[in-house]
Amino acid sequence: MKEQVDVSRSPWRLGPRAARWFDFLLASALVLPTFPLTLLVGQSPYPALLSLAQTVPLFWRRRHPVAVFAVVAGASVLQAATYDMPVWGQVGFPAALYALARYGSGRSALVGLFVGLCGAVVASWVWTSAQFAAYPPGLEYIDYDMGLEDLLPYLLSITAIVLAAWALGSQARIRRAYEAGLVERGRQLALEAEQRAVLAAAEERTRIAREMHDVVAHGLSVMIVQADGARYAAAKDPQIAVRTLETVAKVGREGLTEMRRLLGLLRGTEDPALAPQPGLADLPSLVTANDHVDLEVPDPLPDVPDGVALTVFRLVQESLTNVRKHAGPQARAIVRLRAPGDAVEIEVVDDGHGASAAETSGLGLLGMRERVEVHGGTLHVGPAAGGGWAVRARIPL
């Protein structure tokens, strides 16, 4: 017996509220030790300010990973230029690098890795030089030349931390993309299975309807012929008319029994092939509560052919699916529908980073183009002005 797999289930993840609490607690755990550690070692307030500059931005690491990493990296550069000792706030750099690799793009993650490796070299040189400069004069190793073996402990340790943060973040980003692909594939398989079931059901309904037609047509034909014969024979031989009417009744009962049997197969069901197709009035159903989507449609809706309405619905559906997959969790999108009189114009524009991940030769875009071209329309897909991705179509009426 084959195991039944629920393809509709998504991998477990933190919800939006739990993610906000996790980010808050993590950033707080890195910010709060700044004050007691500064007082404990008796340092000036300047190291504490550097630590705050490197840890406070982590409160926004999930929503703005690039900006947070830039601020944390800038504070680290400022520390290397003005303060030659490690501070607590440096724990914020691997956290910011992880967030950049986890929630940013692959290209930004590589830039962050390069910055981290450069920072490892600079920090190792600054801290090692500071230790040699701190030796009191007159000691026998005052003329000792600092070499690579003196830099290696710092360099290897910091490089390992940078590589680990980048690798973990990149792996999490790749894993989430892989899981999203599996979920989407499972959804497509479920949809295809449902469509096959619909087609099979429609085919079965057609077969039953054909059988019912044969039963009814055959029974009525026999009854008409027998009734005509009984009418002509009644004047000459009433017994023939009686036997003929018995045959009519028998054929009628058999036909009625067979028709009831066939109707029993259809009773309580609705033919999926006759279900209404979605149209312009169903566009709001494509926007869920978690989407940042604005829908602009004319009121009242334009009167368009059913085929055009279905094409508009499928185009918007596919475009919003691509926004959810590629634009990013905080991306906003706007759907505009206009009917200038001789055509219907559809525009779906988002402000995310889907332009770098879009597949211009994907089956979704190919399907949209074929749907639009069937009605003699045009489709334009590509990066939007100012960033993001845009889908624009025009279908003549």
UniProtKB/TrEMBL annotation:
<keyword id="KW-0547">Nucleotide-binding</keyword>
<dbReference type="Pfam" id="PF02518">
    <property type="entry name" value="HATPase_c"/>
</dbReference>
<dbReference type="InterPro" id="IPR011712">
    <property type="entry name" value="Sig_transdc_His_kin_sub3_dim/P"/>
</dbReference>
<feature type="domain" description="Signal transduction histidine kinase subgroup 3 dimerisation and phosphoacceptor">
    <location>
        <begin position="204"/>
        <end position="269"/>
    </location>
</feature>
<feature type="domain" description="DUF7134">
    <location>
        <begin position="18"/>
        <end position="176"/>
    </location>
</feature>
<dbReference type="GO" id="GO:0016301">
    <property type="term" value="F:kinase activity"/>
</dbReference>
<feature type="domain" description="Histidine kinase/HSP90-like ATPase">
    <location>
        <begin position="309"/>
        <end position="397"/>
    </location>
</feature>
<dbReference type="Pfam" id="PF07730">
    <property type="entry name" value="HisKA_3"/>
</dbReference>
<dbReference type="Pfam" id="PF23539">
    <property type="entry name" value="DUF7134"/>
</dbReference>
<dbReference type="InterPro" id="IPR050482">
    <property type="entry name" value="Sensor_HK_TwoCompSys"/>
</dbReference>
<feature type="transmembrane region" description="Helical">
    <location>
        <begin position="109"/>
        <end position="127"/>
    </location>
</feature>
<keyword id="KW-0067">ATP-binding</keyword>
<protein>
    <recommendedName>
        <fullName>histidine kinase</fullName>
        <ecNumber>2.7.13.3</ecNumber>
    </recommendedName>
</protein>
<dbReference type="InterPro" id="IPR055558">
    <property type="entry name" value="DUF7134"/>
</dbReference>
<keyword id="KW-0808">Transferase</keyword>
<feature type="transmembrane region" description="Helical">
    <location>
        <begin position="151"/>
        <end position="169"/>
    </location>
</feature>
<keyword id="KW-1133">Transmembrane helix</keyword>
<dbReference type="InterPro" id="IPR036890">
    <property type="entry name" value="HATPase_C_sf"/>
</dbReference>
<feature type="transmembrane region" description="Helical">
    <location>
        <begin position="21"/>
        <end position="46"/>
    </location>
</feature>
<feature type="transmembrane region" description="Helical">
    <location>
        <begin position="66"/>
        <end position="88"/>
    </location>
</feature>
<keyword id="KW-0418">Kinase</keyword>
<keyword id="KW-0472">Membrane</keyword>
<dbReference type="InterPro" id="IPR003594">
    <property type="entry name" value="HATPase_dom"/>
</dbReference>
<keyword id="KW-0812">Transmembrane</keyword>
<keyword id="KW-0902">Two-component regulatory system</keyword>
<keyword id="KW-0597">Phosphoprotein</keyword>
